[in-house]
Specification:
This protein has about 160 residues and is an alpha+beta fold. The protein has one domain. Helices cover about 35% and strands about 25% of the residues. The protein contains four helices and five strands, in the order H-E-E-H-E-E-E-H-H. The protein starts with a helix and ends with a helix.
Amino acid sequence: MTLLETMIKDGISIDFSEDPMFGTDEVYESYPCPVATVTFSLMDTDILNRAADRIRVEEGYRPLYPVDGYTEEMCVSEGFYGFTIEINQYTNTHVSSCILFSLEGSSLPDDDLLYFIDLSEEEQTAIYERLDEQCRKYLGKSCEDLLKDAEKEMMDYFYDD
C-alpha cells in the first residue's frame, strides 16, 4: 500500500449518520446538461482537519488544532469542520475535484464560508475506491449503484409527465 493509499484509508471515512444526498449538477458543453450526483458527508478525521486548518491559516484565520507552529493555546476553541465530497457520472474519476468544507458552530467571521481541498486525479481515483469500499460494506451498494439511483431520481424529476 502506498503512502497516498494509507492516508486516504485513514483520512477518508463516510459519516453514515447522515444519508448520502442524491442531486444534480450542471455541465456546460454547448448547453447546460444535468449530471446525477451523490454527496457524502465525511467524518472529521485528523488528516482532513489538518488540511482544513492549513487552508484557513493561509486565509489569515487561526486554526482549530495545533498546526504549522500554532500551539494549542494559540488555536480557536470553538466550532468544528463539516466535510463533504461528491461523486458523479461525468468526470473520468467519478469524484469532484475537491473536498468541500466549512467551519460550523462558531462565532468566527468565516463560520459557514465554503472552502475546498483540491484533489489530484490520482487522489480522486483513490478516494473513489475508498468510498466504493465503504458503500459496499455499509450500504450494500456500490458507488456505481448509487449513481444509477441518483440518475433515476434525476430523470424522474426532469422528465416526469
